[in-house]
Each structure stands twice: as C-alpha cells, then as structure tokens.
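ok, trying the design again with the full structure, not the truncated one.
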C-alpha cells in the first residue's frame, strides 16, 4: 500500500518564542502539533511541519481551500531542521478534533477511506501511481458524495498531481473534524 509507514518523529520541540511552554497535543511521522490560543473564540494550534509536501498543503497559494480543508491563520517561518532532513516550518492552523466512533462525520470518513482503499486494490498494478489513480477513481465514479466533498476530492487530486504528492486517505487520524461536526482533510497527502 502506498501509505506512509515510517516512525513517529522523535525530535524535541524546537526552541522558539512562539512554541516554548506550549502543550504538545499531537505527533505524526513528520509533524508535531502544539496547542495554541483561542482568538475571537476560534481555537488554534501550531503545526511544526517537516515535510515539504505538508508545508505546501498548508501554505501554497493554490492549496485546496473550502469547507472541508483546514483554515490556516499564519505562516510563522522556519526554525532549525528536523531529523527528516528538512527545515521545520511553523504554521498556525485551526484546532481540529479526532473523529468520534459514530455520527455523520465518522460515517463519511469511513466511506471515503474504504472507497479509497477499494480503489487502491482495483488499481494496485499501477504500483507507484496507484494512490493518485485511486483518488481519480473516487472523483469520477458516482458515489453519492455531496457537492462539497466531490469538489474537495477533485481539489486534492489537482494538488497531488501539481505537487507530486501521494494521497493518504486511509489512516484514520488524517481525517479530523471541527467542533460542529464538519469533516476536514487534515493531513491527506504525503511526500512522494
Ligand atoms: N489541526 C489540528 N488540531 C489538533 N490536532 C491536530 C491537528 N492536526 C493534527 N493534529 C494531531 O496531530 C497528529 C499529527 O498530525 P498530522 O498532520 O497527521 O501529521 P503527520 O504529517 O506527521 O502525519 C494527528 O494525528 C492529530 O492527532
Ligand atoms: Mg498524519
């Protein structure tokens, strides 16, 4: 399967005035997430990104935006270099929540992940290109997506091909939600 299977990044939180003293609330293969402040009632986090693909996903001028994509408040520049070999970028993003066991967002996430997984199986002989072809399959096959989800999948497909990113819609924690229950593609791509 073309999903990331690396280890969780073990780097210390870099020393930076914006980061010092903040609580760590998440960590993945490439990213450390620290709790931020609430501004005008909207909670924020600091994502410390070491993957150039994730940095592009959060900051590129043509990054996917809209209802199902994370709101980005600020790009705070770089601090040091991660053990992954890339600079750490600090990006301030809306705070998201893990999907609950049940409910509309969880059902939608399961449908996206399982349809994507099935499409990967169908197109597995394409090896390296399997994930992007599977995502394309989701975009062009009628599956009763809402218009917003359909457009989001299309936007992810465009981003993946423009930035040589590979989709990762299988790992549960890459899809998250807002407090109001909206599904958000939090970390749907990784570096080729
Ligand atoms: N916007 C967010 N708000 C709160 N927690 C988050 C947010 N984004 C990510 N997380 C948490 O941090 C973990 C790692 O983030 P993720 O973006 O998936 O990084 P990676 O690229 O390393 O997989 C996630 O699994 C999730 O638990
Ligand atoms: Mg992730």
């Amino acid at each position: 399967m073309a999903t990331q299977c690396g280890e969780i990044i073990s780097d210390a939180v870099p020393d930076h005035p914006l980061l010092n003293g903040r609580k760590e609330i998440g960590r993945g293969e490439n990213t450390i997430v620290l709790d931020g402040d609430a501004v005008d009632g909207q909670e924020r986090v600091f994502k410390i990104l070491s993957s150039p693909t994730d940095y592009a996903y959060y900051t590129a001028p043509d990054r996917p935006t809209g209802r199902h994509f994370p709101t980005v408040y600020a790009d705070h520049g770089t601090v040091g270099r991660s053990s992954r070999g890339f600079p750490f970028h600090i990006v301030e993003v809306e705070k998201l929540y893990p999907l609950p066991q049940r409910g509309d967002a969880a059902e939608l996430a399961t449908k996206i992940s399982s349809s994507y997984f099935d499409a990967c199986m169908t197109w597995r002989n394409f090896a390296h290109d399997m994930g992007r072809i599977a995502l394309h399959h989701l975009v062009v096959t009628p599956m009763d997506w809402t218009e917003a989800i359909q457009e989001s999948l299309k936007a992810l497909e465009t981003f993946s091909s423009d930035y040589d990113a590979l989709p990762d819609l299988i790992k549960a924690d890459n899809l998250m939600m807002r407090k109001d229950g909206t599904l958000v593609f939090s970390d749907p791509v990784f570096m080729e």
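Keeping the full-length input from now on. The longest strand covers residues 72-81.
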